[in-house]
């Protein structure tokens, strides 16, 4: 090859052409960025304070002109922010860029480490106080988000709020609900634990909402309710055996009755509505 003048001439020509093309691309990019720079970047949809604080730094990091800016890289950069679910990036002639953000809407705290949004997507933000606390196997977040919305739709009209939800590895559901803040028609302590089991979940919650007030009125302060019975539920309550002090037959004063809490199980049947 090196002793073939014609091949060397052709190789030199191709190298010259490649160098010219590369130089043309670099020059064109440089001229484009100088003649058509981005003068305005508009970011819409940044509602969370953390997102609003992070946006200026992301905008300052953008490199390129109107035609040379990599829109896919911009999208990925914004979607890397913790609260951002999706980002849509558009050019607007002649010198503007618009970024529309869609942020996560949190519905629960997930295993004490992350947030769960309405679509069943986890995002790496420290959970807020006051959100329902979810403890469930990893990978079940979409199912849990759907069930959580269904349960809230049934409980909220009666004034109940879900404080915690547990899903066991075997698929059994347990809720901890908070009673209405104003007392309402429900005589209840601050929280009641509901055992729902693995099936007929909606039916069991409807049963709880419909029959809890009469059960609480007869039994008093309910703390746990097992709804896995086919035609009723079992209720546990805590109450003192005796509110005061008493002297026994041997003349010794005893405070045990005033201190101890007796856990009692009552079966509430729907057919007879008796306990």
Describe the structure.
With 275 residues, the chain is an alpha/beta fold. It has 2 domains: 5-103, Ubiquitin-like (UB roll) (Roll); 106-269, Cell division protein FtsQ/DivIB (Rossmann fold, 3-Layer(aba) Sandwich). 33% of the residues lie in helices and 30% in strands. It has 6 helices and 15 strands. Strands 6-5-4-7-8-9-10-11-12-15 form a 10-stranded mixed sheet. A hairpin with a 3-residue loop joins strand 2 (84-92) and strand 3 (96-103). Helix 4 packs across helix 5 (201-219). The longest helix has 31 residues, at 5-35. The protein is elongated and about 105 Å long. The N and C termini lie far apart (103 Å).
pLDDT < 50 stretches: 29-33, 241-263
Silhouette: elongated
Structural classification: alpha/beta
Give the mean pLDDT.
Answer: 81
DSSP helix fraction: 25-40%
Strand content: 25-35%
End-to-end CA span: 103 Å
Radius of gyration: 33 Å
Number of helices: 6
What oligomeric state do the depicted chains represent? Answer: single chain
CATH superfamily of the largest domain: Cell division protein FtsQ/DivIB
Largest sheet: 10 strands, mixed
In total, the number of strands is: 15
Q: From the 3D coordinates, which CATH architecture of the largest domain would you assign?
A: 3-Layer(aba) Sandwich
Task: Write the CATH fold name of the largest domain.
Answer: Rossmann fold
Overall tally of domains: 2
Order of helices and strands: HEHHEEEEEEHEEEHEEEEHE
Give the CATH class of the largest domain.
Alpha Beta
Q: Which strand order spans the largest sheet, edge to edge or round the barrel?
A: 6-5-4-7-8-9-10-11-12-15
């Amino acid at each position: 090859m090196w002793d073939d003048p014609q091949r060397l001439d052709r190789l030199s020509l191709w190298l010259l052409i490649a160098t010219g093309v590369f130089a043309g691309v670099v020059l064109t990019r440089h001229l484009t960025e100088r003649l058509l720079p981005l003068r305005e970047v508009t970011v819409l949809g940044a509602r969370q304070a953390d997102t609003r604080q992070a946006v200026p730094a992301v905008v300052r990091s953008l490199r390129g002109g109107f035609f040379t800016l990599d829109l896919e890289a911009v999208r990925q950069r914004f979607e890397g922010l913790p609260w951002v679910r999706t980002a849509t990036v558009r050019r607007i002639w002649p010198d503007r860029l618009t970024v529309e953000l869609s942020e996560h809407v949190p519905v629960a705290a997930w295993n004490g480490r992350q947030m769960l949004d309405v679509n069943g997507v986890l995002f790496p933000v420290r959970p807020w106080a006051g959100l329902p606390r979810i403890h469930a196997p990893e990978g079940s977040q979409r199912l849990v988000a759907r069930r959580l919305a269904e349960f809230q739709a049934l409980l909220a009209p009666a004034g109940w709020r879900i404080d915690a939800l547990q899903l066991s590895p075997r698929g059994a559901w347990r809720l901890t609900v908070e009673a209405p803040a104003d007392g309402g028609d429900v005589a209840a302590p601050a929280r009641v634990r509901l055992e729902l089991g693995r099936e007929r979940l909606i039916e069991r919650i409807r049963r709880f909402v419909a029959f809890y007030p009469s059960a609480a009125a007869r039994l008093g302060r309910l703390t746990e309710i097992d709804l896995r019975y086919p035609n009723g539920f079992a209720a546990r309550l805590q109450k003192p055996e005796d509110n005061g002090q008493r002297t026994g037959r041997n003349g010794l004063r005893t405070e045990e009755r005033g201190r101890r809490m007796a856990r009692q199980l009552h079966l509430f049947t729907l057919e007879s509505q008796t306990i």
